[in-house]
Amino acid sequence: MSTATTAPRRGWGSRLLDGVERVGNRLPEPFTLFLALFVIVAVASTAMAWAGVTVQIPGSDEVTEIRGFFTGEGLVWLTENLGANYVGFPPLVTVLPILLAVGVAEKSGMLAAAIRRLIGSAPRWALPYAVGVVGVLGSVLSDASFVVIPPLTALAFKAAGRHPVAGLIGGFAATGAGYSTNILVTSLDALFAGITQSVVGVLPDPGAPVNPVSNWFFNIAAALILMALAGLLIDKVLEPRLTRQGVPQSEQADDEDGTPSSEAVTAELTAVERRGLLWAAVAFVLTVVAVVAAVAVPGSPWRNEEGGFLPSSPLLSSIVFLVFLLFLVPGLVYGWVVGTARSVADVTTLMGRAIRDMIPFLVLAFVLGQFIALFNWSGIGSWIAVTGAEGLEAAGLTGFLAILLFVMLASSLNLFIISGSALWTLMAAVFVPMFALIGYEPAFIQAAFRVGDSATQILTPLNPYIIVLLTMLRKYEPRAGLGTIIARMLPFTVVFWVAWVAVLSVFFAFDLPLGPGNGIFLDQ
């Protein structure tokens, strides 16, 4: 009897995923990608300048000539503004202060303890829904959420007598597929807002200013729905399927590669951690009360000239400070109680560790800032926006169908460009001005981008955290591969995408405000 085995035939789905991986691996990393785009814009702007190309933005009497980079004017522009292009990159102004405060809250242990408290207090039947809540809220931890949440949720499931792999996969899926939304204001909101605001300067009507809370109402609605759907999918789809497949509920392999085992992570809080969370909560409430008292009194300097807050006011312009304060104060109190932030030196160390985690973005921001600056200075951004808007109008694609096609494009590109900031920098430079010229607020286009930015990132092998997840999964299933993960993530991607588009459709249909002072349509 022959012992030779025949390899099973690979289906079209497997071949498709292999093709996506091959194509994706040929893409350069983001710094090289945007460096190449800078060169392309430099060459294109020079050719268009020599050809005498001009653009006239609707509503403006001024005709703008395309300026070429490889000209005396262009080269002098770069040499005079290299540093300003970098330091003036708007996301740096908002992200870095918030990052310092979030760093204290995270590195002191407060955020992780809060997550463990939320998971550990959930009854057995509600555990999947608690995982949905924690996963969607996880973006407050930034990329650390992909590493912190899955082993914690796996442990919580195992402690409750449920399938730990369901907690592991479900925690990652909820975190990744819902990454761009949150009921809290996060550094991601500041990052996206900064990028959006950096590309609207060329417009005659840039709409309401975009700040970190410009999508807050939309985010809250989407986050609540995605939390519930994540819990439902874990409870009714993922866990039953794992049981039918006979996936082991205990670890099958020793941790030989040095990766921390999920068994080493405990969902039970120590007495000092519980005391720290209690005092952090008290500090948070007192801080909110102090802020409300400061802005609620008549004649408050944070009110606008009419005595209100909308559509603009010093209060809305102080969002970065408020988010900074609401993370920093509880984080400091928690750190003092548990002993991780007992001195100024401790606090600066925690902030330094947070900045260290952002070094890849700070390096990437250098070339992003140069690209955005050249795109705007050359006039190519305005030319593409006007030409694209005219094309959309000529094709009759000025309604929600155009927005839907934009979301689909973002979802597709997200398979290859994992960095949300890099992808939004690329798309915002073209689509924010383009859609503004046919009547849409920049904040609305930013909200539409969020849908495409998150839902598909848990499917692509280019997501480095999928490899981390695979390492964790192989403790239970030594033979698991990327296909195993992708097959289990697919229901989350499809359901989240459809639900998120539905929420966007409702806001569009009823012209609901996306956030304080930000709507769907530009005032005509």
Automatic annotation (TrEMBL):
The chain crosses the membrane at residues 31-53, 86-105, 126-149, 216-234, 277-296, 316-337, 358-377, 397-417, 424-449, 455-473, 485-510. Pfam families: ABG_transport. Keywords: Membrane, Transmembrane, Transmembrane helix. It comes from the Bacteria. InterPro entries: AbgT. This is AbgT family transporter. It comes from Oceanitalea stevensii. The lineage of its organism: Bacteria, Bacillati, Actinomycetota, Actinomycetes, Micrococcales.
